[in-house]
Structures are given as structure tokens and as C-alpha cells.
Amino acid sequence: MNKLTAKEIALKLEHIIDPNDPFIKHCQNDERKNVQQLVKKWINAYEKEKALKEEFERMCTYENELRSNGYEYIAGIDEVGRGPLAGPVVAAAVILREDFYLLGLTDSKKLTEEKREYYYDKIIEKALDVGIGFVSAEEVDTINIYEATKLAMQKALQSLTKVAPEYLLIDAMKLPIPLPQQSIIKGDANSISIAASSVVAKVTRDRYMKKLGEKYPQYGFEQHMGYGTKQHLEAITKYGVICEHRKSFAPIKSLRLEC
Fold it and tell me: What interhelical angle do 33-59 and 22-29 show, nearest 10?
């Protein structure tokens, strides 16, 4: 063992997948500090991946149970944009393949922007079908935010073009449509299909808001995504509201429309 350099040991560890592999034990018995650091790094990485695999399996529980009951095309549905003062409500419907595997995918709010973009690309690449639904700020003002959320989800379902969903898993919502469905509280953290739709909806809406920020740079939409931050409220006070603002929302009800 001592004949191997630290670099050679590091290369060999890259091919070890079992913590009970005798080589791991040899490394642990090696007195060299750099070798101890290498094996510690390997064990930490192994434990992290193990935890991610267990979490992924947990998040597949709803889908696996439905497939065992004969459902093949299961659509996860989620939305983003209920709370902002500006911009659309965006929903996504995602139907994943049975063999879909993407460690670390979870509620989009728990992911960095970089991670969301990465997972978005993987979901688009690997999903059986993805649908997007937009409901504008004007529609939100007309029908209220709750109804707008349901409408965005229904639009997302209607935009699926490759396969027809047989069952719906929805984040904390029920839809008035004749399809079997289940509303799951905190569904984006408990169902892999809803987590996928959460990421797709979030990335889609963020991209929309960034483009809106280019069109109306004085509001800083690309920074706050339309939420009622101090920066946004100050901009509204200074520049008024535009068509993308939700005039029915309390902070801007009394401001003059300038679009």
C-alpha cells in the first residue's frame, strides 16, 4: 500500500463504489495525512450520494404506487408567481419516464439558480412531455389569483402534446377536470414529478421576468422577479405601474395605470 503515491490512491478511489471494499480499509490504516484526507473525502462523497439516492427514492413513492396500480402517464403539476406584484402566473405539467433518474432534484425554491437551470435542461431532455401555462397579470386582476392559478395549471395540461396524462399529482390544489388526481401538500418536496414541474415553471417565469427587466429597466424585474421588494415598491412609487402589474394587489391598488 505504501508503494502507491497519494495521486495513485486518488485515481484508484475514483473507481471504488463499495465502502466495504478492502482498499478503503487499507487507506484508513495508512498513516500518511494526505491519504487520510483522500479517504475521508471519498467517504463524505459516498454518504452524500447515498443520501441523495434515498431522497430520490422517497420522492418517487407516489409515482411508484400509481404505476403499480396501472397508471403509466402521470403528470406532476405546479405553479410559480402567486405572490408577486407583477408578471404572470406560470404553471408546468411534466410527465416523466418510468426510468427517469436525476439525483438532487427537489423543490425549486431550495435550489440555486444555477442548479435550476441545470435541472431544467435535464428535465426537458428526459421527460416524456412538458406543458406550460401562462396567465397574465390582467387575467389575475379579472378572475383573482386563486382562479388564475387553477387556470394556469389547466393551460399547462392542455399544452401537453405528446402523451395524454392518466393521473395528476398537483401541488396543494385540485382542478375541476374529469381526471383522477391527488393534491399533495408540499408536493414539490414529496413528489419527483411535481418537483420537476416546479423547476420548469420557476425557470420559465424567471426567464420571462428577466426579459421584462430588459424592456422596463427602471423596475429591476430581473432582480426581484416582480415580488414586492423595497426596490420594486420604490420603483412603482417613482414610475407608476405598467400593464404587467397586478392592479388588484393591495400595494398598488391606488396607483395610476400608465401603459
Answer: 140
User: What letter represents residue 155's amino acid?
Assistant: K
Query: How many Å apart are CA 37 and CA 120, to the nearest integer?
Result: 35
Q: From CA 78, how far away is CA 115, in angstroms rounded? A: 18
Domains and CATH numbers, the chain: 6-59 (no CATH), 61-211 (3.30.420.10), 214-252 (no CATH)
Helices (H) and strands (E) in the chain, counts: 10, 5
pTM score of the predicted model: 0.91
- Give the three cell numbers for residue 137: 397579470
What are the beta bridge partners of residue 86?
245
Rounded distance, CA 102 to CA 56, Å? 8
State the helix-helix crossing angle for 6-13 and 33-59, rounded to 10 degrees: 10
pLDDT tens-digit profile of 149-199? Answer: 999 999 999 999 999 999 999 999 999 999 999 999 999 999 999 999 999
The 10 Å Cβ neighbour count of residue 145 is 16
Query: Around Cβ 231, how many Cβ atoms within 10 Å?
Result: 13
Q: Where are the alpha helices (DSSP H) in 60-158?
A: 61-68, 113-126, 137-143, 145-158
Measure the CA–CA gap between 72 and 14, rounded to whole angstroms: 37
Q: Give dist(CA 171, CA 184) in Å, integer.
A: 5
Cα four-point dihedral sign 20, 22, 28, 32: negative
Question: What is the DSSP code (8-state) at residue 5?
Answer: -
**Per-residue pLDDT reduced to its tens digit, 45-70:** 899 999 999 999 999 999 999 999 99
* In the block, residue with C-alpha cell 392518466: 166
